From TrEMBL, chain A:
Keywords: Signal
Secretion signal span: 1-30
Protein name (database record): Type 1 periplasmic binding fold superfamily protein
PROSITE patterns for the chain: PROKAR_LIPOPROTEIN (PS51257)
Keyword Signal: yes
TrEMBL record, chain B:
Family per record: Belongs to the TonB-dependent receptor family.
Protein name: Iron complex outermembrane receptor protein
Main location: membrane
Organism: Maribacter spongiicola
Localization: Cell outer membrane
Signal peptide location: 1-18
């Protein structure tokens, strides 16, 4: 009687020891030296290039932030504009962290009913009108027209909103949604 | 002693003859642990009308017995009832060992608020009733009942417990003696436990219970199943909760089969579904939850040895308020300045982006064995896997792809020896080994917020308690923990340089990919912890406890490695590779009185933390999307000073009132500024009427007043591209004080067995008050939950 209980105990003890050992083996084996795969952000917009064309010539506004959400600020460049001129504008968005650079404008155009550019003007910039529309006839803003006033300084703030209220009154406050881009270009009108 | 017994047996056999139904059984009852004799035990011979009580020397005698097999039932007020068989063959002597310590078999009911994890620390136990009332809520909500416990919320369904001002990795959660490894480092990561799975819940405030880990600077939450009674039985419990806010509910059910042999099997399952929650004035769009929990325990608890296998599965899919997903700092400014959220949709049960889905598997095997006159050896292996998906609002082909996909796998082995053979002195020594591996799936297409890493832990501890005399108990413990974290992480080159890592950590770069660097940080931490204290029983009503705990915590992966934009929080979070362990010295005391008419507990504490790790807004960073608040981790010295007080009074046998107050003050002593995210003082009063004659009718009204947090760090100044100027970002200003009323009523009815059905009805935020809480991360966007009327049916069978 006593011996059988002792044996039983020993058996249980062995089982437990075996399990502990197994666990140790699992533990020591699962360490791996795999090198993780690099992730290149797919959806990031690094560069917005605005091309403004008029009879007087072409001007470019650009915001480029090659480290995306990294610590570096976007680098903003803006050509001077001619006074009292109407420019035909178009926007190109790129992800330059990929090679070749990915054109994000296409995605925005495909989902144009969920996106809209908004334009805020100050100083010598007088008017922006939309030159494109989505499937529902609401403006998108990839194509637009910009009119300058008298010579001086001014600024244009271009905001891209995802899932804004459409239609809206043309202001970001009314449109809501989330900001995909918000950049301000100080310009000199001469 | 033994010699004396043999003499006794021999003496008996010399006078009585066998085979005549006049045999004598002489027994002696001794304590299993220290071989001391036990008097006052009742011994019944099963099936015969024979009964006796053991004498002063532990002995008992039955005369005129027939030869053959007898079954004896031995019961003792301080022991577990034991059944044994004795073969009577002439005059027989039998020594019966009784388990004089209750903790293992737990057949006797667990008594109220008696702490059991520590003698000198501040410890509170949640009653089963409180758990039942919170069956439809989260663990954090249930724990709020305890003075000094508050919660850090991301909406109504992601609730992290906060103990005396501290949360996250500073709080250790033990699920059936397994330390949860469920990415507790994130502020929007709630504990992956089903509050219904373990109905024995206690909270130890601070690191007094170092057996469980030396890094519990905030505290330990111990979740255990209710003890299984060691008889042949089959019983179950089913609870259904329905709630108006969220228009859903949950169902939880458990079934337990136990055998007299100590074998038991218990299965439990819960399912919860809620749709969008509602604030008093609007729907909180995309705040639904689906939650499933399953658990299975199989084991055998015997007097000398026992084993248990435990498996639990927990899955939750939780919607994150749609309006809290914002683009940049201007969106945040607009949200803070706006009274109503930007997006309010119609009520729905659907959960869309942003949301999170977390699955947690936990498996455990444990075994214990007692050694006569020596102690108990316990060993345990456990396995956990936590898989977390976070879905953000994304465009195009990626819109259904998770932005974060982490798999955390943990193996642990524990073993300990408890020496309890000496009356009044317990010593426990133990060791821990743990391996953890985190895998961050690159298929998300989003740079990893938390990198791949392997973590190794090794710990050793010794704790002891000593009963100086009947009034004084001393306890003390010491622990050493080693941990190594070995990570492989990609840094943007620009970030690497901006942080100055190119100077301090140039040697850990293993690959340069041009714009990104692959680095291999390996950090070792040696942490020590220790605790000492006393429990003084002034008289049978008044108790005084005092504890000092020294504890160290190694930084978690989030504090070290966080690096990136957290869309759902609209913030860039930055960890720091230079972060070292933080060290806490905590003094706590409590003075308690418990009588049938009134009682109180007065528990002040002082927690001084060196190299306290915190995350707070420090500025903004500019991206093409605009500016984002930058939240950086840093270390400083901090002091938390606080008080938890509670008082109850039974005005009559039917009317009782309860009063609770908790206050904590946190200061960054290096800059002499207030700490961020310290819960505001709160004061809760309730009055309860019970009448056992009316079907155990109970009604209670509770008033909860939460003060405004007046101590907070300064707001930050940011440049708003929209306004083209610097503005103050009101990110730290706490909301106003608020007052909530809640009502609870219940009664029990008899269907088959006595009081087997309990019906309850309760209402929280009874007056549908608009309020925002400082420790709710969604306070910038929306009001907190409005009125919720819920009904519960609890059926025991």
């Amino acid at each position: 009687m006593k011996t059988s209980t002792t044996m039983k105990r020993n058996k249980t003890l062995k089982t437990v020891l075996a399990l502990s050992l197994m666990a140790t083996v699992i533990t020591s084996c699962s360490s791996d030296d795999d090198t993780p795969e690099v992730v290149n952000e797919e959806e990031i917009i690094t560069t917005m290039t605005v091309t403004l064309t008029s009879a007087a010539g072409t001007a470019t506004l650009q915001s480029q932030d090659l480290d995306g959400d990294g610590p570096n600020k976007p680098v903003i460049t803006a050509d001077n504009l001619t006074a009292n001129t109407t420019y035909t504008g178009s926007i190109v968005l790129l992800n330059e962290t990929e090679t070749p650079a990915e054109d994000i404008t296409e995605e925005v155009a495909e989902e144009s009913d969920e996106h809209q550019f908004f334009f805020g003007l100050t100083g010598s910039l007088t008017e922006v009108t939309y030159a494109d529309s989505d499937g529902n006839g609401n403006p998108v803003g990839i194509e637009f027209e910009l009119t300058t006033g008298d010579a001086g300084s001014g600024a244009i703030t271009i905001t891209l909103r995802h899932e804004p209220k459409k239609p809206n009154d043309g202001t970001t406050a009314d449109a809501g949604g989330e900001t995909d881009i918000a950049q301000t270009f100080p310009v000199i009108v001469e | 002693m033994k010699n004396y017994l043999y003499v006794f047996v021999i003496f008996c056999s010399s006078i009585i003859y066998a085979q005549d139904c006049n045999s004598i059984l002489i027994g002696e009852i001794v304590d299993f642990h220290d071989n001391s004799t036990l008097s006052g035990a009742t011994i019944n011979v099963t099936g015969k009308n024979l009964s006796t009580v053991s004498k002063e020397n532990g002995k008992f005698t039955f005369k005129n017995l027939c030869d053959g097999v007898l079954e004896l039932e031995i019961s003792h007020p301080e022991c577990t009832t034991k059944f044994i068989t004795v073969t009577i063959n002439g005059d027989t002597f039998s020594e019966i060992r009784l388990e004089h310590h209750l903790e293992e078999l737990k057949e006797v009911k667990v008594i109220g608020d008696i702490p059991k994890n520590t003698n000198s620390g501040q410890e509170n136990i949640l009653s089963v009733k409180d758990i039942e009332r919170n069956s439809g809520n989260s663990l954090g909500d249930a724990l709020k009942k305890i003075a000094g416990v508050s919660t850090l919320n991301t909406g109504g369904n992601i609730v992290k417990p906060v103990i005396q001002g501290l949360n996250g990795s500073r709080i250790l959660i033990l699920n059936n003696n397994v330390r949860m490894q469920d990415m507790e480092w994130g502020e929007e990561h709630a504990p992956n436990v089903d509050v219904n799975a373990n109905q024995n819940i206690s909270v130890i405030k601070g690191a007094a219970a170092i057996e469980y880990g030396g890094d519990a600077i905030g505290g330990v939450i111990v979740l255990e199943p209710l003890p299984v009674v060691r008889t042949d039985s089959l019983f179950g419990k089913t609870q259904l909760n329905l709630s108006s806010n969220g228009r859903g509910g949950n169902l939880t059910s458990s079934l337990t089969k136990s055998y007299k042999s100590g074998l038991y099997i218990k299965a439990q399952g819960s399912y919860k579904k809620l749709g969008d929650l509602e604030a008093p004035d609007y729907i909180l769009s995309n705040t639904g939850i689906n939650e499933t929990g399953l658990s299975l325990n199989i084991g055998k608890r015997d007097f000398e040895q026992g084993w248990e296998g435990y498996y639990s599965y927990f899955n939750s899919e939780i919607g994150i308020l749609r309006a809290s997903h914002i683009g940049n700092v201007d969106d945040l400014i607009n949200a803070i300045n706006s009274d109503v959220p930007g997006i309010i949709n119609d009520f729905t049960y659907d959960i869309t982006q942003p949301h999170q889905e977390v699955t947690h598997h936990l498996g455990k095997l444990s075994y214990y064995r007692r050694f006569e006159g020596f102690g108990k050896w316990t060993t345990q292996y456990d396995f956990q896997q936590n898989r977390r998906f976070e879905y953000d609002i994304r465009v195009g082909d990626d819109s259904d792809k998770a932005s974060l996909d982490l798999k955390l796998t943990t193996h642990s082995i524990l073993t300990n020896l408890k020496f309890d053979a000496k009356e009044g002195f317990d010593l426990k020594v133990g060791a821990l080994g743990r391996f953890q591996s985190n895998f961050a799936n690159p298929d998300t297409g989003v740079r990893r917020l938390i990198p791949d890493y392997d973590k190794y832990d090794f710990g050793l501890f010794a704790i002891g308690s000593y009963e100086l005399n009947s009034d004084w108990t001393l306890d003390a413990g010491a622990r050493y923990d080693f941990s190594r974290i070995d990570s492989k992480k990609f840094y943007r080159t620009s970030r690497w340089e901006e942080r100055g890592y190119d100077v301090d950590f140039a040697d850990i770069i293993i690959e340069d990919l041009g714009t990104q660097l692959l680095v291999n940080p390996i950090f070792d931490y040696h942490n020590f912890s220790g605790t000492a204290g006393f429990h003084y029983e002034i008289n049978d009503k008044d108790h005084l406890r005092f504890n000092y705990a020294y504890s160290q915590r190694a930084p978690n992966p989030s504090e070290l490695f966080s690096d990136g934009l957290h869309h759902s929080a609209a913030r860039i979070e930055l960890g720091d590779l230079r972060i070292k362990s933080e060290t806490s010295s905590k003094l706590s005391a409590s003075l308690e009185r418990n009588t049938s008419t009134w009682g109180y507990s007065f528990a002040p504490f002082l927690n001084s933390i060196q190299n306290f790790i915190l995350v707070e807004p420090t500025g903004v960073e500019f991206t093409i999307r605009g500016a984002f608040p930058l939240w950086s981790y840093r270390q400083t010295d901090a002091v938390l000073l606080g008080l938890d007080a509670s008082l109850y009074n039974n005005w009559s046998s039917k009317i009782r009132s309860d009063h609770k107050f908790a206050w904590v003050r946190g200061t960054d002593t290096e800059t002499d500024t207030p700490l961020i995210n310290i819960p505001a003082a709160n004061f809760t009063n309730s009055i309860t009427y019970t009448n056992p004659k009316w079907n155990n009718f109970l009604v209670s009204l509770e008033s909860q007043f939460v003060f405004e947090q007046t101590r907070y760090p300064d707001n930050i100044e940011v440049f708003s591209p929209e306004q083209q100027e610097n503005v103050i970002l009101d990110i730290n200003t706490p909301p106003d004080a608020y007052h909530l009323l809640s009502l609870n009523t219940e009664a029990s009815f008899t269907l088959k067995n006595k009081n087997d059905l309990t019906v309850g009805l309760s209402a929280s935020n009874l007056l549908n008050t608009n309020y925002r809480d400082y420790l709710n991360r969604q306070r910038y966007f929306v009001d907190d939950m409005g009125r919720n009327i819920s009904m519960r049916l609890i059926f025991n069978y």
